Amino acid sequence: MRQSNVKRTTGETDIALTLNIDGEGKFVIDTGIGFFNHMLTLMTKHGFLDLQVKCNGDLDVDHHHSVEDIGIVLGQAFKEALGDKAGIRRYATVYTPMDESLSRISIDISGRPYLYFDVNMPTEKVGQFDTQLVEEFFRAFVNQAGVTLHIELLHGRNSHHIIESIFKGFGRVLDEASAIDKRITGVRSTKGML
To answer: Known SUPFAM superfamilies for this protein (predicted)?
Structure first.
C-alpha cells in the first residue's frame, strides 16, 4: 500500500491527514468548511483515494489559511505516498462533465511544480466559500507534490458545477497518473529519475 500520514501545525491551522493512493474512495473529512468537505469527498471518491483529514483552522478570519494549508499537506502526503515513483504511468488527462460545465485536467508527475489554471468563475462565492480559493488550493498542492498540473474550464455557467467538475477530474488524474503500469521498469523518464 502506498500511503502516508502528515501533520502540520502553525499559528493558523492544525492539520492531520492520512492518504492511501491505492484506496477504494473511503473518506473521513472535517475541514470546518462544508463546501470544501464536499469537494474533497468528490475528489476522494472519484480518484479511488482513501483520505482522512482533520483541520482546525482560524475560520473566524476566513477560509483561506485552512484551504491553502490542506493543499500543502495533501501535496506532501501525495509525494510521500508515491515513494520513488517507480512504475507509475506519470501522465494523465481527463475531461469531466458536470451538467453544463466541462473541465479538462492534465497532470505530469514530473518533480517540477507548475500550475496552469484557466478557470473563469461566474461568482465570487458559492455559499460562504470564496471561489478564488480553488486556485490557491491547487497551487499549494502542486508546489508540495512537485507535479505539473493544467486545469482548464472548457465551458460552464454555475460556479458550484464548475468547481465540482474540477475536483472530480483532479481525483481522476491523480488515480490514473499514479497507477502502476507493469510495462514500466524503473521510472518513466529518460533521465532515470522524476
So the answer is: Ribosomal protein S5 domain 2-like
